[in-house]
Amino acid sequence: MKLPVIKHLTQFIADNDEDYVLETIETLESITEVSSIKEDEMDVIGELLSNLYGALEVNKSIKEGKSQKDALNEFMQRVMGSID
Length: 84
Known about the structure:
Pfam families: DUF6952. The chain is mainly alpha-helical.
């Protein structure tokens, strides 16, 4: 996960609509079902998906009243805590 990408996607959601991100997730998940996808391509798709899902989580926190900065920080703390 890349915090700058999640931050950018969160702003994209605010400027446009969450549905674009949801549809992108559906598209990428569909692509993963293609049998000819190589491992490095799957890694890229996985990274994109994790950033998209992260942006949705941050957006949810913002909708609940948190500032973007606080929502991003809390999200990354959760992610880092799950890695340890």
